[in-house]
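Entry 14. Two folds queued back to back today. First construct below, sequence then structure tokens.
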Amino acid sequence: MSKRNGGGAIRIAVMATSAVRRAKLESIVRSHAEFQLAGSFGAVASLMSFARSAELDVIVIDSDLIHDLLVQPTSGGAIVLLTEVRHARSISRLLRSGVRAILSREGDPDDVLSAIYAAYDGLVLLSTATAENLAAVYGDLPLEVEEELSEEITSRETDVLRMLAEGLVNKDIAARLGISEHTVKFHISSILDKLGASTRTEAVTLGIRRGLIPI
């Protein structure tokens, strides 16, 4: 049940290296009765350390240091990022790492509110500039270029992909690899994401084209 329908406040933590920007984020959160400011931090590492032991719904981060976001393990909280980073590949990696909203830090406070609600509801929200950047790079590429831009498939994911090609179901794959079905689902989701496939069949087809599945 949504907390906006009586389940309690939406717990939010904020992070910004700038004290001024951090205070602005704190003010936005505190100005809404539906929100609870659970923590405020000046570094991503400190925030993520706190997030691992706290029950957060949304994490708002003001930063251009995307490396910190990619190497720090994320928590269960949906991440809203305020940044001037516009490189399409960087944005794609951020979305894969758990970021659910990407806005310009110079945007209106109402945009931050919309992003918090969207992320909390399980949606992805991008600024117009960010969305257009992604569309310009990925929207009309030939297959060969898409393959070069996609992330590397791990050896375990390759094993799972080849078993999909054999027609095995999740239960059979789990038994063969000695892992849980939940982990199998995680690997399949990652494979689809990295190959840009929407179905298992499409993933197998792309895997064959890339030489990941011997024929």
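Second construct, same run, same settings:
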Amino acid sequence: MKLTNKDVLEYLKKAAELLNENREYLTELDSAIGDADHGINMDRGFQTVLKNLPTLEGKDIGAILKAVGMYLVSTVGGASGPLYGTAFIQAGTALAGKFEIDEQDILKAMQAALDGIIMRGKAERGDKTMIDTIAPAIESLKKSLSNGTDFVEALEEATRAAEEGMKSTIPMLAKKGRASYLGERSIGHQDPGATSSYLLIKLMLELIKEKQINN
């Protein structure tokens, strides 16, 4: 399956809508172990992205994603801005000059995004962060594609892995970020960054399934 720069712009539009809808939910999660602003910050960042989407029409996918990363770095507060911003910038770098991408390009971009998050946040799996959602999704997608699994089916499996990863943060002791200051009290709460990452992965699956049906 091929995705165009227009598909990417549509994804970003839907992402802004999704994060706006989940603003209170994400903030509620963050109120337990953070600064109670993750939903507010993500919504603010993606509303800025939404407002600037018209200026990105006609640009290649790499340029679009890099621009999104810059908007997020400059408008999203807390740790989320630098982490999500870096993720989009690195994904954009991986897809530089491309107006159309396939499943291997998506995998490459996701891996680049994860590498950027790890580099910026100095975290690893098990630290109760967004990495616990994204890394299992990439592992699953990589395995499925190498086995020749249909892309939509592979993405479905990756999304399930992302959901399991997100839920796995509940019993974890936080080792990074604001949540780490709580020590044992961070146990029993789902990580908000892991949750927003899951929502964005699930959205990608939904839009790609919709595109497949319409084609």
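Quick look at the second one. The chain has one domain: 3-209. Residues 192-214 form the longest helix (23 residues).
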